[in-house]
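Journal club prep, shared notes

We agreed each person brings one worked example of a sequence with its structure written out as tokens. Mine is Gfo/Idh/MocA family oxidoreductase. I'm keeping it raw so we can talk through how to read the token line rather than staring at a rendered picture. Sequence first:
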Amino acid sequence: MLKVGMIGAGIISASHLAAVANHPDTCLAAVADLVEEKARQAAEPYGARVYTDYEAMLAQEPLDLAIINLPHGLHEACVLACAGRGVHILLEKPMATTYAACRRMIEACQAAGVLLQVGHLQRYIPQNRAAHEILQSGRLGKLAMVCDLRTNNYFKPERPRWFLDKAMAGGGISMNYAAHSLDKLCYLTDSSIASITGSCTCWQPGTEVDGSAQMLVRTQSGTSASISLCGYRVVPQDVTMLFCTGGALRLQTGRSLEITEGGAYSPVDTSQYPDAFAAQWADFISGVRGGRNLHNDGAYAAAIVRAIETLYS
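Then the structure, token by token:
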């Protein structure tokens, strides 16, 4: 049984902890968070120990694995600390605030002989998996272009304030949401990013982070894609249109997938796929146990950070 430590008990930690608890080969040993009550609430259902300092947790607990769920600007120091203890790492995205930091993390994990997987979740989401299968089958012909639109009230009061601190977050909606969009594009096209151009706005009073962005991306396989993000006062949407020579897919990630071959759109059943976080965790554990390469390793995640850096430059 592999012992797991959770570092950071933010909102997404509940999904990770459920995946740990439901896997037959892992158990939660400890949770660390600066806010003791948050750590306690996360740990108690699983009988795990509570810490307010992750370095103390790493020193005192014989952990095999760590899940890092911290503000982006804290990722590098935490990854280096875990690697120094020989602990394999599942790190929330984006990997870091800069490509240079990503490279240092990769080198540290390689030197320590530990696996690093970054939580780019798109390949595990049921609707995305079904879309990928359809595209790979050739049923709709060749993929001609992709249009990705995501809108959300990025500056809502309940968002943790560190997201609006450029130094800590690394950026705004592009660093946070374009990481998802680029991951989705790479997965659905079975390719990587060849080029990216675009622009963003930073018009929210009281913060320097970007609130909207538009990008034109080309993959190594030759697919062109547009990515549009808006985080001002909007109605939330997350829609990806995949236009092929013989039809199209309308993908609402986490909600629905529809297909057309020239007529009306019809729904695609995605109920056969497991929960995304459970699938991600199972993939990570298979990598740890089998020593195989991970899909979303440090190099993959670093390329996404590098693309976003290009947009910001």
